[in-house]
Amino acid sequence: MTPSSRRAVLAGLPALAAIALSRPAWAQAPAAAPSGPHSLPPLPYAPSANEPHIDAQTMEIHHGRHHQAYVTALNNALKDHGQLAALPLHELLAKLDEVPESIRTTVRNNAGGHANHSMFWPVMGGRGGMPSGELAEAVNRDLGGFDRMKTEFNAAGAGRFGSGWVFVTVARDGKLALTTRPNQDTPLMDGQRVLFGNDVWEHAYYLKYQNRRPEYLNAWWNVVNWDRVAERYAAAKAGTLGV
Ligand SMILES: [Fe+2]
């Protein structure tokens, strides 16, 4: 920060404090959050939008604290690495072997966390149901139909030991596949694209479901926004899908 920008920030402190006090606690970024190339995308609906299946407090903490923490840590790791900081997130994750070893694990965990959660929010906020059209045809063709996909997705999520994610990936030709990853790893690290996925870290469900991860996995389908997933499917086939 330059001296003049520091003065500007200091001069604005009373106003900033007033703004911060007027915002809900979950929406306040950590005080030490640095500016950087990556930022927290806004939640595309109210935190209560996924009630009763996912409670508002879980959404607030998950988005405003957990996702923000990944963004903050990623920006911190990249602050002296301008070329890496300039890469789109999916390209950074596909080039982890080019990231200096001193920051590689930090970038892997936090770029992965940022990418996974940036995918996660938009594919929720819906009313569940089933995919339609071309996407439904792909589910039938590649995953044995909606019911089988749901059963196998839930089993894969329940079987993911510890923390991680369960995903449906989409290839450029539209082919779908079911997979899981530990921690904040993502198929983007293998140059693949994610159609949709569910977070099976305890922070995603513990307030409401405690240790009942299978119950959370089953309930999650009630909030999937298939319109957004269909948009991701079209973008993947067009080669424009990022994270
Ligand atoms: Fe999460």
Automatic annotation (TrEMBL):
<keyword id="KW-0732">Signal</keyword>
<dbReference type="InterPro" id="IPR001189">
    <property type="entry name" value="Mn/Fe_SOD"/>
</dbReference>
<feature type="binding site">
    <location>
        <position position="117"/>
    </location>
    <ligand>
        <name>Mn(2+)</name>
    </ligand>
</feature>
<feature type="binding site">
    <location>
        <position position="199"/>
    </location>
    <ligand>
        <name>Mn(2+)</name>
    </ligand>
</feature>
<keyword id="KW-0560">Oxidoreductase</keyword>
<feature type="domain" description="Manganese/iron superoxide dismutase N-terminal">
    <location>
        <begin position="38"/>
        <end position="124"/>
    </location>
</feature>
<dbReference type="InterPro" id="IPR019832">
    <property type="entry name" value="Mn/Fe_SOD_C"/>
</dbReference>
<dbReference type="GO" id="GO:0005737">
    <property type="term" value="C:cytoplasm"/>
</dbReference>
<dbReference type="Pfam" id="PF02777">
    <property type="entry name" value="Sod_Fe_C"/>
</dbReference>
<feature type="binding site">
    <location>
        <position position="62"/>
    </location>
    <ligand>
        <name>Mn(2+)</name>
    </ligand>
</feature>
<feature type="signal peptide">
    <location>
        <begin position="1"/>
        <end position="27"/>
    </location>
</feature>
<dbReference type="GO" id="GO:0004784">
    <property type="term" value="F:superoxide dismutase activity"/>
</dbReference>
<keyword id="KW-0479">Metal-binding</keyword>
<feature type="binding site">
    <location>
        <position position="203"/>
    </location>
    <ligand>
        <name>Mn(2+)</name>
    </ligand>
</feature>
<dbReference type="InterPro" id="IPR036314">
    <property type="entry name" value="SOD_C_sf"/>
</dbReference>
<dbReference type="GO" id="GO:0046872">
    <property type="term" value="F:metal ion binding"/>
</dbReference>
<comment type="function">
    <text>Destroys radicals which are normally produced within the cells and which are toxic to biological systems.</text>
</comment>
<dbReference type="Pfam" id="PF00081">
    <property type="entry name" value="Sod_Fe_N"/>
</dbReference>
<dbReference type="InterPro" id="IPR019833">
    <property type="entry name" value="Mn/Fe_SOD_BS"/>
</dbReference>
<protein>
    <recommendedName>
        <fullName>Superoxide dismutase</fullName>
        <ecNumber>1.15.1.1</ecNumber>
    </recommendedName>
</protein>
<dbReference type="InterPro" id="IPR006311">
    <property type="entry name" value="TAT_signal"/>
</dbReference>
<dbReference type="InterPro" id="IPR019831">
    <property type="entry name" value="Mn/Fe_SOD_N"/>
</dbReference>
<comment type="similarity">
    <text>Belongs to the iron/manganese superoxide dismutase family.</text>
</comment>
<dbReference type="InterPro" id="IPR036324">
    <property type="entry name" value="Mn/Fe_SOD_N_sf"/>
</dbReference>
<feature type="domain" description="Manganese/iron superoxide dismutase C-terminal">
    <location>
        <begin position="131"/>
        <end position="232"/>
    </location>
</feature>
